[in-house]
Amino acid sequence: MRILLWHVHGAWTTAFVHGPHEYVVPVLPDRGPDGVGIARTYDWPGSVSELPPEQLADEHFDVVVLQRPHELERLAPEWLGGRDVPAVYVEHNAPQGRIAEMRHPAADRPDLLLVHVTHFNALFWDAGSTPTRVIEHGIVDPGYRYTGELPHAAVVINEARRRARVTGTDLLERFEREAPLDLFGIDAASLGGAEDLPQGELHGEMARRRVYLHPIRWTSLGLSLLEAMQLGMPVVALATTEAHEAVPARAGTVSTRLDVLAGAVRRLVEDADEARERGAAARAACLDRYGLERFLAEWDEVLKQVAR
Predict the structure, then answer these.
(1) What is the pLDDT of residues 3-17, one digit of tens each?
(2) Which of 13, 166, 210, 302 pairs as cysteine with 148 (C-beta 3.0–4.6 A)?
(3) pLDDT tens digits, one per residue of 15-24
(4) Are the C-beta atoms of residues 116 and 94 closer than 8 Å to each other?
(5) DSSP 127
(6) CATH T-level topology, domain 150-289
(7) Distance between CA atoms of 269 and 55, rounded to whole angstroms?
(8) What is the DSSP letter of 233?
(9) CATH code matching the domain that covers 2-138+292-307, chosen among 3.40.50.2000, 3.10.20.310, 3.40.50.720, 3.40.30.10
């Protein structure tokens, strides 16, 4: 099967393109948001190719995977030359705004399948008559790499300054009273953190820290949290959106109480044996629920259904 999709979310796309199909991603000269092309900081298989928009109209595709409103409304119709290619819309994000106004851009499209990446998203988005399904995340297993040699907490936040309230950046000062925090992610350097690292290097640096802290208030489900768990790290996370589903009690601490979370960070940093034990439990739980094989099997089923 030949699939067209935009490279929007690096970690999710990395998992998706490990399937058994041929994948094409658009590329623009500036590699901007609508034409990022093949990833440069993730390892992708050779089954992925990139093409400029002007060549897409002459190419055969069995399915187009849409992930943003303007792909549905403008890019796909224009770049595919008006052809009616079977489509599936993937919603990565939790809705924003008042609960009564959380209507999905692809609502009331019975010709389209809307796939949510978490049950929380499916619950909160109003899709009207559009058929919906949930396919939970799956990630490429980075392997057990935990050493916990540094008595620090690792935090991964992209655009931490701009998204401060959403990502819990404003909470980091509170946690720094309990343990040293090492911040990673896009634009993390602007807050004294590390430069954006290739995925392999990032995983190695995360795994050297004693505990993973996930302070994000409102997100679909941060894939860095799942990566930390599969690395073998114990986790401390805000009990918001899907986090309480992803992190079992034996893997760390999930709560909306800052005093509970801060205490858990301090305890895990100080107790290397407990941290290692909970990290092993986190890895086992995450492999079981968010393994790549299950993710790709469910997506294969959906793609075959849509392509008919």
Answers:
(1) 999 999 999 999 999
(2) 210
(3) 999 999 999 9
(4) no
(5) -
(6) Rossmann fold (3.40.50)
(7) 53
(8) -
(9) 3.40.50.2000
